[in-house]
Amino acid sequence: MAKGSAAMAAAVVVLVALLCAPAAGELERLEHPAKNDGSLSVLVVGDWGRKGTYNQSRVAEQMGKVGEQLDIDFVISTGDNFYENGLTGTDDQAFEQSFTDIYTAKSLQKPWYLVLGNHDYRGDVLAQLSPVLQKIDSRFICKRSFIVNAEIVDFFFVDTTPFQLKYWTHPKDDHYDWRGVAPREKYLANLLKDLDEAIKKSTATWKIAVGHHTMRSVSDHGDTEELLKLLLPVLQANGVNFYINGHDHCLEHISSKDRLTSI
Ligand SMILES: *[C@@H]1O[C@H](CO)[C@@H](O)[C@H](O)[C@H]1NC(C)=O
């Protein structure tokens, strides 16, 4: 009996360990066909959810016009989808107030592929990843790390917030929702391994990485050392053409001699 309960306790411990430690596996891959002529046109936006304030509505209006002119196929969001602290839950009205009711132009009624930013991690992070939101607005496709294959291009979406150590260690900073992510080292190791395998398998002409945080930056936030150390080598080794990010609220175009460009 004593042995039996010890075995049971061990089994429970293993199960708990499996539930807590995100296992390595293939990155989820979504398919989005290109146009009939093989071309593709997308808009990228980041750092936006302000219930229309901070000129969000004005930017949305211009996105609608440009989206029409370019006949866009989809929209990419580089994260910080809802300020200041993400969503409080799937019933948070900010979802409609900052997304559905703002991006009303006809050309923007396409899928939106979104990653999370640091502000999203300050709320109920699972809410943004929940399929419940897609029932409210089917455009909203937010995941942690995933691939969108659009024939000529593979987009590799990377969850960059867990890379930055200061979010884990800053006691005076806001609360971060690390459910499904902690422990950090294991999460990052699995993510980088999955990403490396996925990019190696890619046969698309263009390979583009998307994340929230800066890799190189000449603006407010500066370089993100953890991304330069851990993520950049994986992108470089596998011939990723460029990296698109948000976080700095300005436009930068950084190119380097060793090929990888950030926008
Ligand atoms: C909105 O845009 C106007 C015009 O470009 C600018 O003057 C104003 O400061 C902006 N408002 C905010 C809150 O950023």
UniProtKB/TrEMBL annotation:
At the top level of its lineage, which domain of life is listed?
A: Eukaryota
User: Which family does the record assign?
Assistant: Belongs to the metallophosphoesterase superfamily. Purple acid phosphatase family.
Q: Which residues bind Fe cation 2?
A: 80, 118, 212, 247
Its subcellular locations are: Secreted
Q: Where are the transmembrane segments?
A: none
Q: Which organism is it from?
A: Digitaria exilis
Q: Which GO terms describe its molecular function?
A: acid phosphatase activity; metal ion binding
Per the record, what are the reactions this protein catalyses? a phosphate monoester + H2O = an alcohol + phosphate
Annotated ranges, domain Calcineurin-like phosphoesterase: 41-250
The protein's name is acid phosphatase
**What start and end residues bound the annotated signal peptide?**
1-25
Q: What is its main location?
A: secreted
List the cofactors: Fe cation
Q: What are the top taxonomic ranks of the organism?
A: Eukaryota, Viridiplantae, Streptophyta, Embryophyta, Tracheophyta
Alphabetical keyword list: Glycoprotein, Hydrolase, Iron, Metal-binding, Secreted, Signal, Zinc
The free-text note explaining how the cofactor binds reads:
Binds 2 iron ions per subunit.
**Gene Ontology cellular component list:** extracellular region
Fetch the InterPro entries from UniProt.
Acid_PPase, Calcineurin-like_PHP, Metallo-depent_PP-like, Metallophosphoesterase_PAP
Query: Which residues hold Fe cation 1?
Result: 47, 80, 83, 249
Question: According to the UniProt entry, what is the EC number of this protein?
Answer: 3.1.3.2
